[in-house]
UniProtKB/TrEMBL annotation:
Residues 80-456 form the Circularly permuted ATP-grasp type domain. InterPro entries: ATP-dep_Glu-Cys_Ligase-2 (IPR051680), CP_ATPgrasp_2 (IPR025841), UCP005522 (IPR016450). SUPFAM superfamilies: Glutathione synthetase ATP-binding domain-like (SSF56059). It comes from Spirulina subsalsa FACHB-351. This is Circularly permuted type 2 ATP-grasp protein.
Length: 480
């Protein structure tokens, strides 16, 4: 196996499995000892078997920029990413702290806005955020929780230091890949799971269902839960249907729902049936054409009125998108200090705010060294990696920043950690990030072990998004 000669380039990168050539990290030793018993052809066969299994399972996604509208299988790499029990316990604490502060922030800005009055977050940043929705002011979500399901993107730098790259609080996707990747790995390589103490991930749907049922009024003995999807053309439709099936609840579109007698009702072959909890995978402004976008055909007219009256629970609560804003992200460490009186456990990536003149001047003078991101884009879109961009591309982005400085942030180009990855018939290091999933029930916060490891399959690329050619790996969190 090529692992004996694999060069992690430890002077330049932090490798998740190797400290140096021929020297695996302690947590990776059992895996690598087992892999050394395979020849390259066997590993490739396992890799191909896993990819075929994912295709047969229907684990696909759509790329909106693809004019052919072809569903694609997310590329999967057979070599997993391993996280030690000690690392994971520390990450878990940091994620719980961060989500607690973000929830308090959301509740605050839709009520008294004390953090703004005390000068910790500028009022203009909140008011200009596309995700800040004035119709949500004064809302009282069930159990006081706004962000029930969160996907937080983490990266490691060349020194192995963890950073939060961004927060995803509206409709974070990707958990279905976590579950199906593990399912395929266990069927393809069953023996390794007998020899390693790896934390399970297949109980996520039961944790999610428990969190959703927790939102229903306690007097309801058998509340009805449904998953609201935009429909089959949405890029994450596989995940919507998968989660509904795994939880044993209905998958509905806006056209399947109606407000009657002050309640949200689902159309069935036996008549209308009341829906008590809606896990919505539709963006905020498409939820209710009477409250938000009048041209929306994806939502339900009158839904927000029912929600305000406390007759239906929504997860996540409308309005959470303001915390997805990459400019607001820069203030999360201050939120933690303000609301919790604690120092942040997990650090942000150092961030330059282009709406501030001093930061903007620095960014414009150093575009060749920075990563520039649009404040409300996702999927790797609206981004400039200055070290890999042409002079023309940098000039175009400079004009965008000058025209709308509020819409851009910039960060130093982190040298993301790498994991050995099977590239055709050889093993090479590829950059990765990690998206753990966090469920906030009100009385407790649950962090699902591991998460989605996304890998940039193109050599030298730092962009891990599936829409930009990235793939995924199984993430193994070892038990204490």
């Amino acid at each position: 196996m090529q692992l004996e000669t694999y060069d992690p380039e430890s002077a330049t990168y932090y490798d998740e499995l190797f400290e140096a050539v021929g020297k695996p990290r302690p947590a990776a030793v059992p895996l690598l000892e087992w892999m050394q018993g395979l020849n390259p052809k066997e590993l490739q066969q396992h890799h191909q078997t896993a990819q075929i299994a994912l295709f047969k399972l229907g684990v696909t996604f759509n790329v909106y920029s693809d004019t052919q509208g072809v569903e694609r299988v997310l590329p999967f790499d057979i070599i997993p990413r391993i996280i030690s029990a000690e690392d994971w316990q520390w990450l878990e604490q940091g994620l719980k702290q961060r989500i607690t502060a973000l929830n308090l922030f959301l509740n605050d800005i839709y009520h008294d806005q004390k953090i703004v009055q005390d000068g910790k977050v500028p009022a203009e940043i909140i008011q200009s955020a596309p995700g800040f929705l004035p119709p949500c002011q004064g809302l009282e979500p069930p159990t006081g929780v706004w962000c029930h399901i969160t996907g937080t993107d983490l990266v490691r730098d060349r020194n192995g230091q963890w950073y939060v790259l961004e927060d995803n609080l509206r409709v974070p996707s990707g958990i279905s890949y976590v579950l199906e990747n593990r399912r395929v790995m266990k069927s393809t390589l069953p023996k390794i799971f007998q020899n390693l103490a790896i934390q399970p991930v297949d109980d996520y749907p039961s944790h999610l269902l428990e969190a959703l049922l927790n939102l229903a009024p306690p007097y309801l003995q058998t509340p009805t839960v449904a998953v609201l999807t935009p429909g089959i053309y949405n890029s994450a439709y596989f995940e919507h249907s998968f989660l509904a099936q795994q939880m044993g609840v209905e998958l509905v579109e806006g056209r399947d729902l109606v407000v009657v007698d002050g309640y949200l009702q689902m159309k069935t072959t036996k008549g209308l049936r009341r829906v008590d909890v809606l896990y919505r995978r539709v963006d905020d402004t498409f939820l209710d054409p009477l409250t938000f976008r009048p041209d929306s055909l994806l939502g339900v007219p009158g839904l927000m009125e029912v929600y305000r009256a406390g007759r239906v629970a929504l997860a996540n609560a409308p309005g959470t998108g303001v915390a997805d804003d990459k400019v607001v992200y820069a203030y999360v460490p201050e939120m933690i200090r303000y609301y919790l009186n604690e120092d942040p456990i997990l650090a942000n990536v150092p961030t330059y705010l282009c709406w501030q003149e001093k930061d903007r001047d620095y960014v414009l003078q150093n575009l060749d060294k920075l990563v520039v991101k649009a404040a409300n884009e996702a999927g790797g879109y609206g981004m400039l990696v200055g070290t890999q961009a042409s002079q023309t591309e940098r000039e175009i982005f400079a004009k965008k920043i000058e025209a709308n400085p509020r819409n851009y942030i910039a960060q130093p180009t982190l040298c993301l950690s790498r994991v050995p990855t099977l590239i055709e018939d050889r093993i090479e290091g590829r950059h990765v990030d990690l998206r753990p999933y966090i469920l906030h029930r009100g009385d407790e916060i649950y962090v699902h072990p591991g998460g989605l490891t996304r890998v940039a399959l193109r050599k030298g690329s730092l962009v891990v998004n599936s829409s930009q050619g990235g793939g995924s790996k199984d993430t193994w969190v070892l038990t204490p």
